Amino acid sequence: MPVPMELSRIIISEINDKQIIYLKEIDGERTFPILIGLFEATMIHRRVKGFSSPRPLTHDLICQIVESLGGEFHDVVINDLKDHTYYAKLRVRADGEIIEIDSRPSDAIAISVTCEPHLPIYVEEDVLNEVMGE
Amino acid sequence: MPVPMELSRIIISEINDKQIIYLKEIDGERTFPILIGLFEATMIHRRVKGFSSPRPLTHDLICQIVESLGGEFHDVVINDLKDHTYYAKLRVRADGEIIEIDSRPSDAIAISVTCEPHLPIYVEEDVLNEVMGE
């Protein structure tokens, strides 16, 4: 079962190549970090803080493309962890069906906070068990 | 009339906030620079050099989203210049129609070099005249 989680913290350090975001269980206490790139972390931070931009930034463009093609973002799911790499999928509703698109968690979460209202974020129970057991 | 152009040069300097890409006329000599962000410049550089990534980067994801929704990128057009800011549109074919999506030139060009084969890049004659006359 996918577990509803939320973005609880973003730690950006320009000294490091990798930044850290934390997801936290909405109906519980489990939390874990994901390492992501500076660009994606900055995009997520801007959106969470509500900073606007005069021109569409890359994740705004993604939302616009989906809308222009008649789709609608549904939610994002972090569904696997292999060799210390998390995998996510974007779930998009189009023509009455749900289409799943492979994504890095960083882009998935950036999209989730760019959409209004923000998209639900889920993490598969297996992934959460694996990361909490480490 | 839109003029066919190609990416002729990318200048990346980590000291500066803005990077420079040059477009050059395919059937002529006109060329001009566009200032873009470091992330977008790095993405364009990686694609032009053929560097691959184990996971989809943001512009790979954009191509995947369009394909998953049954669309196909057609070309990109830089169609306006206002207050020293260039405007572009992505032209996507879907259901037999061409849909135009507003974009920054940096994302448009990153998408153009991420698609295989690369998408044609056009610049509106008016924009080219304006920038050459400056």
How does this structure look, described?
The structure is a homodimer of 134-residue chains. With 134 residues, the first copy, chain A, is an alpha+beta fold. Chain A has a single domain (2-133), classed as Roll (Bifunctional nuclease domain), CATH 3.10.690. In chain A, 31% of the residues lie in helices and 43% in strands. Chain A is built from four helices and seven strands, in the order βββααβββαβα. Chain A has helices spanning 38-48, 58-68, 105-114, 125-133, and strands spanning 2-11, 18-25, 31-37, 72-82, 85-94, 97-103, 121-124. A seven-stranded mixed β-sheet of chain A has the order 3-2-1-7-4-5-6. Chain A is globular and about 40 Å long. The model of chain A has no long low-confidence stretch (mean pLDDT 95).
Quick recap:
2 copies of one chain form a homodimer. With 134 residues, chain A is an alpha+beta fold.
Distance from first to last alpha carbon of chain A:
20 Å
Query: What are the segments of chain A in which pLDDT stays under 50 over at least 5 consecutive residues?
Result: none
Strand order of the largest sheet of chain A: 3-2-1-7-4-5-6
Number of strands of chain A: 7
In this structure, how is the largest beta sheet of chain A organized?
7 strands, mixed
Q: How many DSSP H or I helices of chain A? A: 4
Largest interface: A-B, 28 and 28 residues
- What's the CATH topology label of chain A? Bifunctional nuclease domain
**Strand fraction band of chain A?**
35-45%
- The oligomeric state is homodimer
Global mean pLDDT of chain A: 95
Order of helices and strands of chain A: EEEHHEEEHEH
User: Roughly how many Å is the radius of gyration of chain A?
Assistant: 15 Å
Helix content of chain A: 25-40%
Question: What structural category arises from helix and sheet content of chain A?
Answer: alpha+beta
* Count of all domains of chain A: 1
The CATH architecture assignment of chain A turns out to be Roll
CATH superfamily of chain A: Bifunctional nuclease domain
* Principal-axes shape call of chain A: globular
CATH class of chain A: Alpha Beta
